Each structure stands twice: as C-alpha cells, then as structure tokens.
Amino acid sequence: MQKKNHNLEEEIKLAVHDIPAMLSKIRSIAKFVRTEYLRDVIYGVSGEKKKIRLRTQDNFESRLVDATHKYKIAVEDGIKKEIEETLYKGNSCEDALKIISSQGGFVEENSYEKTRVIFAGSHNTEITLDIYPYGAWVEIEGESSSIHEVAKQLGFTQKDYIELNADELYDVWCRKNKIDILWDVRFGFPDMDDNIYEKAVST
Known about the structure:
single chain, CYTH-like_dom_sf, CYTH domain-containing protein
C-alpha cells in the first residue's frame, strides 16, 4: 500500500566504543523491545540533496519494506530535527521500487546493512543501538528535553552528539583507515571490483 505520512523526528547519534558496556548501561535505564536486521538502499538524483531510503526490516518473525523521504530541517542544541515522509509501507520490494521510480530520476547510490537493538526509554524516548560493519552508534529519539536527559544517564554530554549520517560516517571511517569505499556495505565486506566506489589512497 502507498502512504504519504509526514512525521517530525528529533534525535541524536552517539558513538559506541564498547558494545557490551553500552548494552549494560542501556538496560539499566530502559526496557528491551526487539532486535531487527535492516538493509537500507539510498536513492538520489544527480546534483540534488534529496534522497529516498528503501528499507528492508526483518525482526526474525516477519519482513517489512518501506520507502521514505527524509529532510533535515534544523539542528538545535545538537539535536537533529527531520521531516520523514513515508511513500510506501508494506511487504513488496517490487511495489516500493515502482513508487520510487514514479518520483523522478532517482537512481541507486549506495546501500548498507546493520543490526538494530531497540529499547523503550523514559519519557517516551526510543533508544537504539545500531551495529554496522564499520562501527556502532546509539540513537535516542523523543522530545528534546528527554533526549538530553537520557544521553546524560548513559554517560554522554552534548559535545558527544554527532550530526553525520550513516553514509558520512562510513566515508570518514574508510578515509581514516585507508580502506576502499564500497557501494554495498555488508558484514564481511565483500571485496569485489564491481563493488568498489572509490579506491583507497595508496601510501
């Protein structure tokens, strides 16, 4: 089915250097909800910032597919405020791709997968631990005042807030470690010639 719902999201992203320790901290202040496998494919138009995310979400019992526009409208006190517009939500990748193609000249730019662990925090916040092939980050979503409070409970300060998105964090990680930048970022890093977007700078 096709939907066009608009939703305002407020969230922060925080780097995780010790996953077991972070899980312990989160469990002490929040309740475990579920674990999901996610694969995101990003579509864009040449020369434009507008993106569509095609997401496959599997919670090990069922699969959900959605296509979503996300627009960052502001960053206030380190908290990103974004408008999320759902174009499609259902069970068919084929139907989602048809809707994406109807939006104009969007083409596949890159993709990545992650494991997401979701917790329900205080004051209607959602805490997620996202584990990518190239690192782990916590996201806290909710009202601004509650986000700051939960981040503090987890041992973070506002200077720890990260504005970069997953694509940008991957790019930084590759350049820092002089690793080839791949189109399709998966666990195990499939290293084939047709998956390389940009070769690492040789030293």
